[in-house]
UniProtKB/TrEMBL annotation:
Listed InterPro entries: Ribosomal_eL30-like, Ribosomal_eL30-like_sf, Ribosomal_eL30_CS, Ribosomal_eL8/eL30/eS12/Gad45
Superkingdom of source: Eukaryota
Signal peptide: none
Naturally occurring in which organism (per UniProt): Oryza sativa subsp. indica (Rice)
Single GO cellular component term: ribonucleoprotein complex
Protein known as: Ribosomal protein eL8/eL30/eS12/Gadd45 domain-containing protein
Keyword list, A-Z: Ribonucleoprotein, Ribosomal protein
One annotated GO molecular function: RNA binding
């Protein structure tokens, strides 16, 4: 699920910060529903989400495309 590319991506999970703008959050949830992708609402703001990703900038939302060997898509609840 990639909104910029018309939804043709192959995301497995979308993580959204709790201070994501409401309109953007509803768009993400809508496109995730269409693409049958799980959405996880991160219990922290965009600075916290960026730090959790190891980045020095704010991250409002992110998509997990390739979970690798981790089982992140199984550990998180379907919709939080």
């Amino acid at each position: 699920m990639e909104m910029r590319e018309g939804g043709g991506g192959d995301g497995k999970l979308v993580i959204v910060a709790n201070n994501c703008p409401p309109l953007r959050k509803s768009e993400i949830e809508y496109y995730a529903m269409l693409g049958k992708v799980s959405v996880y609402h991160f219990n922290g703001n965009n600075v916290d989400l960026g730090t959790a990703c190891g980045k020095y900038y704010r991250v409002c939302c992110l998509s997990v495309v390739d979970p690798g060997d981790s089982d992140i898509t199984k550990q998180l609840p379907e919709s939080h």
